[in-house]
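[audit] Reproducing an earlier prediction to check determinism. Same input, same settings, fresh worker. If the tokens differ from the archived copy the diff job will pick it up downstream; this log only records the rerun itself.
[audit] input (321 residues):
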Amino acid sequence: MTKIQMTTPLVEMDGDEMTRIIWQMIKDELICPFVDLKTEYYDLGLENREATGDQVTIDSAEATKRLGVAVKCATITPNAARMDEYHLSQMWKSPNGTIRAILDGTVFRAPIVVKGIEPYVRTWTKPITIARHAYGDVYKNVELRIPGPGKVELVYTPADSSEEVRATVQEFDQPGIAQGIHNLDASIASFARASFEYALSTSQDIWFAAKDTISKTYDHRFKDIFQEVFDSEYKARFEEAGITYFYTLIDDAVARVIRSEGGFIWACKNYDGDVMSDMLSTAFGSLAMMTSVLVSPQGHYEYEAAHGTVQRHYYRHLAGE
């Protein structure tokens, strides 16, 4: 047969461990016999990230902005054990976090519902889509081990050399840990617009949930920006489409989700979306049956694995299983 031709290459981001084995099988058996595959290849395996000082991850994201579409395999975000195993010079950050920050996109994840793979939650009859903010929070954090007594502060130094603003995080009287996270108004607004546009394009209601009662500045800013964008740009369009948007606390949203029949979009902050998308995919019957696509405000798409590398499978593979 004549292979399907590709006029423009896409970005291929190879991954780690068992992912590399399975991705090569997918190409050899399911894609290349039928498609004249053209890709710009980037090896995001941990060894190559170490060898390039993680520059390869940045290059792959910039290539996605240039070519418009990328496919990314699962990668390892190293912990202390992985540092020793792979002889790393540092604990490299999540490649997904780096790519998402550069593309400033929103991750949409939805379960693939088929007969034979039934949801564990009996009331779920329709897919639930997670819209995950793909910038900031713990994925762009700065962390410190606190060796002993002392003070940790947040300090804002204005660029115009006006007076600094300081806030005490904690007066430590013993060893501990501290973490600083951030986000940007523009990124939150892009997240809101992408979520509302997706809701309109799929004719689904949308929820947004955070913890503004506890995080009275950080999470409250998310809540306010979502409401401002909705009121000024989307309220009339939602009314015309017959769909709704509402905000609720994240713990209330969890309870509502379990009682629901599905068929809506649940917009979450970065960490919440990471955790809840895995919970939803498993509760729908299979972690493997979950789509995941990063959509940037400029219309760039990165299709990624919604799961990890499954380390134990890789070592069984190496043992000949």
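[audit] rerun output stored. Observation attached for the diff report: DSSP finds ten helices and 14 strands in the chain.
[audit] end
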